[in-house]
Amino acid sequence: MKRSFGCTPLEYLTRHRVEQAKQLLVNTNEPIGTIAEETGFGSFPYFVRCFSRHTGFKPKAFRIRYR
């Protein structure tokens, strides 16, 4: 899979989850913790860490900026 997509399966899944979370943050009023759960992250701190690594923003800052 790494040859086909340029990343490991876990990296691909994490990117997909972050993309889903970005859409939910901008288009809904759901609490950020709920979005973390709905997108499959095991814990809130892990969600914040992954989201920040992929976007350069913490989830709350992303929501404020892109709404």
From TrEMBL:
Residues 1-65 form the HTH araC/xylS-type domain. InterPro entries: Homeodomain-like_sf, HTH_AraC, HTH_AraC-typ_CS. It comes from the Bacteria. Pfam families: HTH_18. Signal peptide: none annotated. SUPFAM superfamilies: Homeodomain-like. The keyword Repressor does not apply. One of its GO terms (molecular function) is sequence-specific DNA binding. The keyword Signal does not apply. Keywords: DNA-binding, Transcription, Transcription regulation. This is AraC family transcriptional regulator.
